[in-house]
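Lecture 7, part B: from sequences to assemblies.

Below are the input chains for today's worked example.
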Amino acid sequence: GQNIDQPTEMTATEGAIVQINCTYQTSGFNGLFWYQQHAGEAPTFLSYNVLDGLEEKGRFSSFLSRSKGYSYLLLKELQMKDSASYLCARGGYQKVTFGIGTKLQVIP
Amino acid sequence: DGGITQSPKYLFRKEGQNVTLSCEQNLNHDAMYWYRQDPGQGLRLIYYSQIVNDFQKGDIAEGYSVSREKKESFPLTVTSAQKNPTAFYLCASSSTGLNTEAFFGQGTRLTVV
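Predicted structure of the full complex, as structure tokens:
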């Protein structure tokens, strides 16, 4: 939907750092969201970027470059409970469009 | 506790029957939305409402209908016209419109047999 691209799957080791990238269509852009979704559950809000730069929230950080149509979610000190899908969502005129999500598997 | 509640969590229906999914929120949010999620696809917007007695079609509204008679409630009816209704349905709400943080219900997994 609306050219939101993110990798479908990633695997990372417990304690490591992982970066999940997202690219999106820039026209009509009005903010970039990241949500976490565990299997069979509702998505939960992680972050919102509307200006360029890095926003840090504990182990999770999110970066935005509006000119490049690019964002990433950085997860540090990975824990097993971080295994989930991470949804990139683009705010636009009157609606938010979600990507397909990146399924992250954290292994011991 | 404030929150958004969908019911039921699992729902089974026979093909050709209409079915209504419930969504209630006590967060005093103006905006409410319905999304559909299928395996391998992102959340797709079915309908949204930014104020009582008003709603707009999303990207995949065909075969669905909604109402917004109260601020707290935004039920979704999956009609027999929906060709492939089996899916995970998510309701969400937000305070001032679509480009603000959305709070999601637990979801309803609808299976049509």
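Note for the exam: Chain B is about 0% helix and 50% strand. Keep this in mind when comparing with the next example.
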